[in-house]
Structure formats: C-alpha cells, structure tokens
From TrEMBL:
Family matches, as InterPro entries: His_Pase_superF_clade-1, His_PPase_superfam
Species, as recorded: Shewanella morhuae
Protein name: Histidine phosphatase superfamily (Branch 1)
Pfam family, one: His_Phos_1
Length: 191
C-alpha cells in the first residue's frame, strides 16, 4: 500500500510538473505565434474610407456649413461604419468637411485632424503622410476634386470625377503591405 502511494505521489508530482511545463510552453507559443502576427497585421493592413463632404448650404459661398440634408448624411456615417474600427479622422479647414465628420467624431471620441487644402499637390501629399503616420483605419472627408486624387495617391485606381451634386459616394480603399491596393466604391444615404 505504501509503495503504491509513493508511486502514486511520484507519478502525480511528475504529471503536475509535466503539465506546468507544457502549459508554459503552450503559453509561450501562443504569445509568439498569435499576438505578434496580429499586431504586425494591424500595422501593415489598413482601411481608408474616403467620402466627399455632405451636402452644403448655399450661403456663404466661401465656406458654407452643411445643409439640413447634409447634417442627416453626416449622421448616417455613424451607422454605416459602426463595425469599422477607426484610428483617425481627417478633414480640411473648411466647415463642410469638418461637420461631415463631427457626428462620428463625437460618438467615437476621436479628434478631427485638419489638413489644409491650399495648394492641391501639397494637400494630397499631407493627407498621404497623415494616413501613414497613424496605425489603423482612417476616415477622410474630402472635396469633389480631391477625393479621386487622394485615392490615386494612396495607391488606388483612377476613378471618375465626382459630380458637383453627388454627395453619396463612399470609397473603401484597402491597403495591404506588399499587395496592390483594392478599392470598393459604394453609396450611403439618400441620393
């Protein structure tokens, strides 16, 4: 009886030691295999969502605010992108782009980064720099003349010019390290 208890105790001790070692090794493997690639994937893969600002009021001509219809469209971005994690929001110095991002900025508790839109080439370059300065997904509110240029500068395909009365287009530009960018064009809100 005593011998079987000693064997039993010895066996239990070795078994527990073995389990602890296996658990430690499993934990180390889990950390090295699972967490590292995930964090690297987040750094290398990103989604850039580009919209033209929502409908603007007719006055003042120089820097109009959003119209009531534009405010509704801006609010719709919250629902359209509710499952999409965002790291940053980018707008120009004009009220219509900032107000297009204001509702989602409030809900997500994200600041809106302002990239001045004076000289168009510099503006596009600064947008690209800002996109790559922050890891994760970005939502950009641009203008009818800048949205196609932003997409192209980030490695996307050339798209048709956006009509002056078209506010519903939403572009999803997927940037995957080492792969060509892919673009999905869709629409949101009332047309």
């Amino acid at each position: 009886m005593a011998v079987s208890r000693l064997i039993s105790r010895g066996f239990k001790y070795h078994l527990l030691t073995y389990i602890k070692k296996v658990n430690l090794l499993t934990f180390i493997l889990f950390i090295s295999l699972n967490f590292a690639p995930i964090s690297q994937a987040n750094a290398e893969n990103r989604l850039i969502i580009i919209v033209r600002h929502a409908e603007k009021a007719d006055t003042p001509v120089k820097d109009p605010q959003l119209s009531p219809k534009g405010v509704i469209r801006a609010t719709l971005l919250i629902n359209v992108l509710h499952r999409t994690p965002l790291s940053q929001l980018i707008a120009t110095q004009y009220q219509r782009t900032q107000q297009s991002l204001e509702p989602i900025a409030e809900v997500r508790h994200l600041p809106v980064t302002i990239v001045e839109a004076n000289a168009i080439e510099q503006h596009i370059q600064h947008i690209v720099e800002q996109v790559y300065a922050v890891q994760g997904n970005t939502l950009i509110a641009g203008h009818s003349d800048t949205v196609p240029l932003i997409i192209k500068a980030l490695g996307g395909p050339e798209i048709q010019a956006i009509n002056e009365d078209d506010y519903s287009q939403l572009f999803l530009l997927s940037l995957n390290d080492g792969q060509p960018a892919s673009l999905i064009a869709t629409r949101y809100g009332q047309e």
